[in-house]
Every structure is written in C-alpha cells, then in structure tokens.
Amino acid sequence: MMKKRQFIISFILILFCHFYSLYASQAPTGYLLSKKESSLVTIAATTAKGDLTKLKDVLNKGLDAGLTSNQIKESIIHLYAYAGFPRSIRGLQTLMAVLEERRAKGINDPTGADASPIQNDQSKYERGKAILEQLTGVPEKEPKTGYAAFAPTIEIFLKEHLFADVFERDVLTYAERELVTVSVLATIGGVEPMLKSHLNICLNVDLTPNQLNQFAVIIGSTIGKSEATTAKKILDDVLNSKN
Fold it and tell me: What is the pLDDT of residues 183-211, one digit of tens each?
C-alpha cells in the first residue's frame, strides 16, 4: 500500500512538472497585474462605457484593493482626454457618491498624494514633446506629416495639454496612465490605430506581455467579448512585430 501511494504521488509530481514546464515555455514573461492595476483597468473601462451602476461596484472594489481616492480621481480625470468630459464628469460624480456612502458606513478611505507642482521653465509644448518621446522611445520627426500636418492646431493641443498638462502629473505612473488609456480605447472602439500605438507604449513603460494579455481578459469580463477580441488581436499584432 505504501509503495502504491508513493508511486501515485511521484506520478502526480511528474505530471505537474511536465505541465508547469510546458506553461512556462509558452507563457509570456513577466508578472500579472496587481489588484490595484486590475482595478484601474475595470474603473477606466466602465467609466468610458458609461455604466454608472456597474461603476459603483468596481469603484468599491478598487478602494478595497488599496487605491487611494486621489489615484482613482486622477484616472477618471485622465480618461476625459480619450472618452470626453461627459464620461469623466459622470465618473467623478459617481466616485463622490461612493466615497460618501463608504464614509457613512465608517470606512475612511485614504486620500493619497496630490499632484506635485510642476517645476520646469520649458514651454508646455517642449515638455509635452519630451514626455511623448520618452513614452514612445522614438524622437519626434520633422517636418510634420499626417494629421499633424493637416491640422497643426490639434498637434499643439496634444503636446501642450495631453502630454504636458495630463501625463506630467505624478499621481499616477506612466504605466498606470497607459493602462487607463488602453482600457478606454478598447472600450470605445473604432480607434484601433491609437490602441496599437498605446499598446506599444505600454511595452515601452515596462508593462509585460503577460500583463497586457490579462488586460484583454479583464476587458472581456468587464465590457464584452467583441471588445476583448479586438484588443487581443491588436495586442497579438504588436507582440508579433517584436519577434
């Protein structure tokens, strides 16, 4: 009986090692998203979708996961640049209601750090340009082409406001801001070139393929199969281009 038991245990261990080695050889490298990062994905996607009932639930889960109210507030402010003021403001109003309900229950959520004052004498355009180059790892090309040449005003707005006023704030890291960005873009749809660009930026700010695959799974469970399928296809294209 003892020998039979040892044989079974040994057989199970061999099977485990085999399947673990198989998984390790095929799985993308890197760790999974943290609970806080996963919550940023669900909060951004749900806010962009405009599902305020569901948003209350994911906001509560995000606070329970350890996000500060300022981190959540900043993520909702950030996404207005991609989903518009109406979605962002409704998200902030929902966050206000959730925090008030939690206070009434005796839950005192940490506020967290405010954004630091910007100490930089460069113009906002130059600061935004430098941040964009840091995010993409690619120097800006001159002369301008595409939409930047067709509508120079929006290219200025992009540098001065999105990448200076918004990305320069330090409440969230670049990686966290990119998770918010790709979550919004995957949710609203029809902006595949932008999603592809920001998934490339995600890799450049040290998010791993494993984490980005998890992002696509979260979009599926939070928003829907169609959005997740599109996000996964674009992600696969991005990852395959790196090989």
Answer: 999 999 999 999 999 999 999 999 999 99
Are 185 and 46 in contact by the 8 Å Cβ rule? The answer is: no
Confidence of residue 15 (pLDDT cuts 50, 70, 90): very low
Show contacts of 76-80: CB within 8 Å, 24+ apart: 76/43, 76/44, 76/47, 77/166, 78/166, 78/172, 78/177, 78/180, 78/181, 79/44, 79/47, 79/48, 79/180, 79/181, 79/184
pLDDT in tens, 63-108: 999 999 999 999 999 999 999 999 999 999 999 999 999 999 999 9
Token representation of residue 31: 């760790």
Count the neighbouring beta carbons within 10 Å of the beta carbon of residue 216: 22
CATH node for 35-112+170-242: 1.20.1290.10
Structure tokens at 117: 């004052």
